[in-house]
Amino acid sequence: MTEAGPGATLRASMMGDDFTIGFDADDTLWHNETIFENVHLRYRTLLARFHDAGTVEQRLFATEMRNLKRYGYGVKGFMLSAIETAIDLSDGRISAEEIRLIIALGQDMLAHPVELLDGVQDVIGPLAHAHRLLLITKGDLRDQERKLSLSGLAGLFRAVEIVSEKDSGTYERILRRHGIPPQRFLMVGNSLKSDILPVLEIGGVAAHVPYHLTWAAERVDRVPDAAGRFFQLRSLRELPDLVREMRAGPGA
Amino acid sequence: MTEAGPGATLRASMMGDDFTIGFDADDTLWHNETIFENVHLRYRTLLARFHDAGTVEQRLFATEMRNLKRYGYGVKGFMLSAIETAIDLSDGRISAEEIRLIIALGQDMLAHPVELLDGVQDVIGPLAHAHRLLLITKGDLRDQERKLSLSGLAGLFRAVEIVSEKDSGTYERILRRHGIPPQRFLMVGNSLKSDILPVLEIGGVAAHVPYHLTWAAERVDRVPDAAGRFFQLRSLRELPDLVREMRAGPGA
User: For chain A, N or C: smaller number of CB within 10 Å?
Assistant: First the structure.
């Protein structure tokens, strides 16, 4: 792992032995964006007779962002936005049977097997023995519960928080509810916007493990700037070493 | 209020002074089923050229039940099931513009003002001074948060639990998380299936306040049978008296 920013020696004193580790789920523990990517490809193919791929993507994203406040995150909102965009882009010429195909695309996602990312099996179990683990994720309530259940990891988390938005207020509420001081909380996730920046903002520690794809709505230009509280990992396999260093203290 | 079942004197000894009151939200604190009912009417009108109202309702309900496991409860799942049913019932002849109208119906629901039920304003505030109140509801995460925020009641609840299903396991998890013994928990709601029976099942106390409409999926034939732990109220306005009796103890 590499530490981003100065102040490496701060970290152990901030954490100490007893700290809680929060994990994002989609694209941190299991594949998600690759499934969406595949559905986008089939969606673009379906609409190819009306518009080129770039236009389809652009309009779908615009619809999703316009609907985000009312639908929130998750597959169901995506399905509704995809249907709406298809009607818009075809000037109402899309057929009911084609809309049925869009619904089927979404339903396939909701039945998709859960594929754990590399390292998850080896890393999460041992960490759960020594630390309190939380799962903090956004999306559809039912779908996230389904994926957690299929992942085989459910028993390893002390609590599961499925939230409508992952901002600093959300993290504050979760930590308060569990009685966790922010400086004793390490969040691990693939999204700088949802997993890293808001946690650093409230004084927590964050480890970024990038996924090879990032949904446009999760992209940020800001680089985290939090001396000794932000860590960049290449893979979840590097997490145990980071946790060990944090437990060992400044002299380790 | 009337107490359903024998054993009235049990209740006070079971509750004591310090107990938590859980509230359902839709059709217990604010109107919901009336909004759905209005949308159903407009939906049946839209499909009237294909099928009679009874067939439309029957098929829509069948689609919703078939999709319940993948979509869960809430407006977004309803919208997707309504689109799917319209395509089915029209043998694919429904137009894209008509599907756009179904989406608009759903989006109207997601923007609908929150109308509190009679008595809520007068009852909830004073109860919140003396007791820990929880809000326990199912549906879309974002939509339920929106309604709670618009209701003006958010600050009165110690915690808000938006869950994917309200069964005995769900109530057990919630009570465990908050450290509440079931016998010190009173749940108030309009659905026998979701608010009353599962709470009685785990040893809690429940007060049923019926709403004038009940969604078919929430109807049950079973009559609660729990000596001294089940109460039938005509209106939320009767709740303070029940709570007072419970606090006063058996001799009151």
Answer: C
